Amino acid sequence: MDQTHIVITGPTAGIGRASALTLASHGAVLTLLCRNLEKGKSLAQEVVDAGGVEPTVVEMDMASIDSVRLAAERVIELGRPIDILLNNAGVINSHRRETIDGFEETFAVNHLAPFLLTGLLLPQILAAAPGARIVNVASGAHQFVKGMQFEDIQSTQNYKTFDVYGRSKLANILFTRQLAKRLEAQGVTVNCLHPGAVSTDIGKQHGEWIARVVHLILKPFFRSPLKGAETSLYLCTSTDVADVTGAYYDNCKIKRPKPWAEDDEAAETLWQYSEDSLDFRYPALPKS
Fold first, then answer.
1. Cα radius of gyration (the chain)
2. Residues facing 6 on adjacent strands
3. Is 249 tagged catalytic?
4. Which of 159, 165, 273, 282 is catalytic?
5. pLDDT by residue (tens digit) across 127-145?
6. How far is the C-alpha of 127 from the C-alpha of 83, rounded, in Å?
7. Nearest 10 degrees: Cα torsion 156, 159, 165, 167
8. 34: β partners
9. 181-193 pLDDT tens trace
10. Helices marked H in the chain — which ranges?
11. Integer angstrom CA distances of residue 273 from 49, 63, 111, 209, 262
């Protein structure tokens, strides 16, 4: 991983932190996109103290479209191709919240923000091709729902915590499949994964009771963050997956997701909905 440029979202806690520290220990040059700038700087110093290359820390609030755009601009200004983009950050809320842009927050942070960030950074990712990778942290929680439920995708009519979270994770898988198709023959692979039940800070930023209850009940069964990061790290580093794209992984192995996560028509609908909602169009790709 010497001098491999890796951009990571949500790197200051849980599997994101474990991934960042492990990748840095193998010589990767990290760009850390952090909601909490101080935590990001602390992690960067930890990397340096351990002998790694000093990371670049960029502030980014994934609940703000303007913040995502500004963060992407700052990454582009680095003038360095992106070998790997690890879309790791996520949130779960016990009740409905809206972002500053008026989107339901779980869907916005877990899907719309990485969708936009990936599109904005795509030219820098393509500049690292062939061999560039996009890795999306999805979840087995996609089985909580049986489709995107486009009629209430912003959960204005009905809000159930695990349904909303599951739908956002389903969106991660559908996005992965559609982006992999669009990048076919461009030298960039796109894969996603289920990290397993991991003790992380997800849901804690708002003092969510749901996070406290889940952690209390399931703590004996949780994987460590490093164990939970294994599949993320595998997809970022292994030569075994160098030519694999559009797949869903669990425990470092390809796994078939639920049928509704393989619905290409839904994936296309989600893509169009996302572009329209964000008023953003993915860059035109050269013919393969």
1. 17
2. 30, 84
3. no
4. 165
5. 999 999 999 999 999 999 9
6. 8
7. -60
8. 59
9. 999 989 999 999 9
10. 14-25, 37-49, 65-77, 105-107, 113-126, 161-182, 209-218, 225-228, 230-237, 264-278
11. 44, 18, 12, 31, 18
